[in-house]
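Quick start: read one record
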Amino acid sequence: MKARSTVLTLVMLFVGLVMCSAANPSLGTWKLNEAKSKLSPGLPKNLTVTYEAEGDNIRATVDGVDGQGKPTHNEWTGKFDGKDYPVTGDPTSDARTIKQIDDRNLELTVKKDGKVTMSGRIVISADGKSRTLTMSGTDAAGKKVKSTSVYDKQ
């Protein structure tokens, strides 16, 4: 009887985790599809972005390369509630804000020293298999930049 109860509990936990993942299509690992993207030369590239539930927060882990091709890694933990949350590991930003617009659309703001440097929109496809990030702002040299990054769900 005890073994049956344990198995039933594990099955219910697994179903709950699957339902939570399905409820938030942002969760998971996203890999940059450079062929479909339009990236400004010299800007950093986020090669993989992973969103995981961490309690009632979302943890974002971003791995990529900087403008010179050197590896980068940064992390952000917060909510999709439009409030600033600190970023670690990114010399070009110290806070990010993500606001959930609806199930498939989010607004993103990147800040450095309280000043907005980049802003954009994340759109997840209806089938949940791709995500497009359109960003615009100012690079470290003060030049206006624009990019569209397309990611495939892994």
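Strands lie at 28-32, 45-54, 57-65, 71-78, 81-88, 95-102, 105-112, 115-124, 130-138, 144-153.
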